[in-house]
Amino acid sequence: MSGTHNRLPYTLVWICIAAIGAFAVAGIALQRGETINSMWLVVAAVCVYALGYRFYSAFIAAKVLMLDAGRATPAERFNDGRDFMPTHKWVVFGHHFAAIAGPGPLIGPTLAAQFGYLPGTLWILAGAVLGGCVQDFVTLFFSVRRDGRSLGQMAKDELGPIGGSAAMLGVMMIMIILIAVLGLVVVNAMKHSPWATATVAATIPIAVLMGMYLHHLRPGRVLEATLIGVSMLIFAVLGGGWIDEHPLLRGWFDYDAPQLAVMVILYGFAAAVLPVWLLLAPRDYLSTFMKLGTIAALAVAIVLLRPELKMPAVTQFIDGSGPIFGGKLFPFVFITIACGAISGFHALISSGTTPKLLANEQDARFIGYGAMMMESFVAIMAMIAASVLEPGVYFAINSPAGIVGKEAADAVAKISAWGFPVTVEQMQTLAQTMGESTLFARTGGAPSLAVGMASLFAQVFGAHLLAAWYHFAIMFEALFILTTLDAGTRVARFMLQDMLGNFKLGSGKSNGYPSILLTSGLVVGAWGYFLYMGTIDPLGGINSLWPLFGIANQMLAAIALCVGTTILVKSAKLKYVWVTALPLSWLIIVTSSAAWEKLFSADLRVGFLTHAADLSDKLSGGLLAPDLAAKAPHLIFNDYLNAGLTATFMLITWLLLGDTLRIIYCIIGGKSYPQSSESAHIPSRLAENWVRD
């Protein structure tokens, strides 16, 4: 009886959390005809995440995966001081969160606000708890149990040569495109922004100092290194603002896009070849404080101000007529949100750098499920920051000139006609207060998110610093994205080494610098080419591949869940296979629908082939203006390239699904199938408290 009494308060607390969460979600979903306070979204998110982590992730950890704290991890067994290295769980969490939290949770929800705040918010909450967090957790665990192998290599080992080879090829192709797009986003965010460039550049020597401090000077003194690093980071942020205002120093950090692209390429190569303890892990760990600190400050501002959401719950653009991007609510809200709910890129990190650092298998739940949950909360913050803007301002910033018109008067007239009033004077005043010449047609989501964040920060922390807050937000977004690029490059290097190892063209392991330099150079050269060409192309180059970002990302998640589902069945966990099979089924439906739309839709703003055919007809008929006629061949080529890549990704995904179903059929039917590649159980001998605790 005493045990029951002791558990009663605990049970009541969780019942209250569940009731509050259900009430908040219902309030968001049912609110119509009047504005709703942003605190509803915050409360709903906190309650949903708390319930998901406490109960669902605990169920997966205990019943489905059965984590074993006494089992030696690859970091312990293959410790080489470079790629494999037992690392404190908080440092690993910081690295993992920094690596997975790229532009998706910031930009995706901001763009998806075109449909209203409701569809995106509901998908962020449900998709993360039941899909994204599960994928990251399961992939990390299975990679740890398989010597830290990459997703592509696990697919080959578990599914066989056909599906595995297709997966490795598809994952590598998708990875190159994703990193190139990430690079272009971060270059555009830092372009002609000395504050952002100086601060981001300063994080590199600070990280090296932290790495040396933890590895040589004071091993294991994470708290000391953290205090030093964070103090220097704060100084770098303040110093960046001072540099931005200094007439001489400003020029030292004011670069155009091609120059920044070269710098990003060189940084990506360095991050891929240097020991992980020297640059990558401490820099990503340090960046996490900037990320979490800024998001925490944004959350504090929202809690204190409790701003009303000015964007409607649902807009008229759910029919596919939206100005920011074409496509109906289904499936494009799921493709656009991407990383805020579920992201295949995370599976590459969870089977790349992170499993090589994990010192304790039990930490897979905290790092895999918990970090994704934190990223999802970032997406909620981004949705709020976008939705507190006046809708007219939001659409004026994000709508391209080709849709609303090149002249300010034409743009405001068209946007106002949609039912979202805005004036030229209003936009001019806003641009001046943000320290910009204009905010019209600043597409991509980053500028509007920065305006929303700056407006909230200014009301709480100082309205006279509005321009400074805007540029701080731009710098924050650049830093947010760059950490994903560096970890992604290193993961791509691991994947390429695995592929070369399968063909006996390399060691397949990170045990020699010739192999590391070669594979790193090939990976960086591939995405660096697309990045650089994108910065010098007047049409944006790689920008034409942006629609593929969301589709490719979700298809990667489907590949990861195919591998996870197969391993679960092989592990005699057929009764729990729904844990991965349900999100997998949903992703197959969404990605296939989106890919089909992008290939064959009759809407010129959606279908690649339709747009290419229309341009070709107009070009041959002499119906295009001279400037557009000169660009048309390039645009047509991009459309066909996009279509070819989309079709390839879709075919690979369905091939993997078919191979997964084949393996499951063989297991259930008692036929032969590739045996599990799980490594043998070796007891852990780690005793250092700083590592294990």
UniProtKB/TrEMBL annotation:
<feature type="transmembrane region" description="Helical">
    <location>
        <begin position="222"/>
        <end position="240"/>
    </location>
</feature>
<feature type="transmembrane region" description="Helical">
    <location>
        <begin position="260"/>
        <end position="280"/>
    </location>
</feature>
<dbReference type="Pfam" id="PF02554">
    <property type="entry name" value="CstA"/>
</dbReference>
<feature type="domain" description="CstA N-terminal">
    <location>
        <begin position="37"/>
        <end position="594"/>
    </location>
</feature>
<feature type="transmembrane region" description="Helical">
    <location>
        <begin position="640"/>
        <end position="657"/>
    </location>
</feature>
<keyword id="KW-0472">Membrane</keyword>
<feature type="transmembrane region" description="Helical">
    <location>
        <begin position="12"/>
        <end position="30"/>
    </location>
</feature>
<feature type="transmembrane region" description="Helical">
    <location>
        <begin position="369"/>
        <end position="389"/>
    </location>
</feature>
<feature type="transmembrane region" description="Helical">
    <location>
        <begin position="544"/>
        <end position="569"/>
    </location>
</feature>
<feature type="transmembrane region" description="Helical">
    <location>
        <begin position="469"/>
        <end position="492"/>
    </location>
</feature>
<protein>
    <submittedName>
        <fullName>Carbon starvation protein A</fullName>
    </submittedName>
</protein>
<keyword id="KW-1003">Cell membrane</keyword>
<dbReference type="InterPro" id="IPR051605">
    <property type="entry name" value="CstA"/>
</dbReference>
<feature type="transmembrane region" description="Helical">
    <location>
        <begin position="37"/>
        <end position="56"/>
    </location>
</feature>
<feature type="transmembrane region" description="Helical">
    <location>
        <begin position="165"/>
        <end position="189"/>
    </location>
</feature>
<feature type="transmembrane region" description="Helical">
    <location>
        <begin position="329"/>
        <end position="349"/>
    </location>
</feature>
<keyword id="KW-0812">Transmembrane</keyword>
<feature type="transmembrane region" description="Helical">
    <location>
        <begin position="576"/>
        <end position="596"/>
    </location>
</feature>
<keyword id="KW-0813">Transport</keyword>
<feature type="transmembrane region" description="Helical">
    <location>
        <begin position="292"/>
        <end position="309"/>
    </location>
</feature>
<dbReference type="InterPro" id="IPR003706">
    <property type="entry name" value="CstA_N"/>
</dbReference>
<keyword id="KW-1133">Transmembrane helix</keyword>
<feature type="transmembrane region" description="Helical">
    <location>
        <begin position="122"/>
        <end position="144"/>
    </location>
</feature>
<feature type="transmembrane region" description="Helical">
    <location>
        <begin position="195"/>
        <end position="215"/>
    </location>
</feature>
<comment type="similarity">
    <text>Belongs to the peptide transporter carbon starvation (CstA) (TC 2.A.114) family.</text>
</comment>
<feature type="transmembrane region" description="Helical">
    <location>
        <begin position="513"/>
        <end position="532"/>
    </location>
</feature>
